Amino acid sequence: MSDPFFDQPILNSPYAAPVRHWKLNEEGQPTREINELRRPASFITPIPRPQKSRGKTRQLNFMVDATAEAISTDRQEYELTTIINELRSAVTNWRNDE
What are the pLDDT tens digits along the chain (98 aa)? Predict the structure, then answer.
């Protein structure tokens, strides 16, 4: 039996914004289902620790995303890359204004 993902892994045109994607399971593997929308970016980016300051005050951390907060430690802080989705939205608005 043939797997549709391997028969046609690319669903979108290289000349237009993506409009559908293969749904992924919990392990990040493609399923046989197609979602009719663009997949949101969900990469995780490490945030460098600040250099030691001479003062005794410590800046409070502000974590917006629960996933990033769950994987962050005292040694390394992470942030989900929301700027990619914001940029995609801005490009879509720009294309629609033409």
Answer: 678 888 999 999 999 889 999 998 888 788 889 999 988 887 655 556 667 766 655 555 544 455 555 666 777 766 667 778 888 889 989 988 86
Q: How many CB atoms lie within 10 A of CB 38?
A: 15
Co-location of 93 and 51 in the same domain = yes
Kindly compute the dihedral angle of the four CA atoms of residues 66, 39, 9, 26, in this order, to the nearest 10 degrees.
30
- Which structural domain range is residue 76 located in? 40-98
User: Which class for 6: exposed (0-12), middle (13-18), buried (19 or more C-beta within 10 A)?
Assistant: exposed
Inter-residue contact 12 to 20 (CB < 8 Å): yes
Total domain count, the chain: 2
- Based on the domain organization, do 52 and 88 belong to the same domain? yes
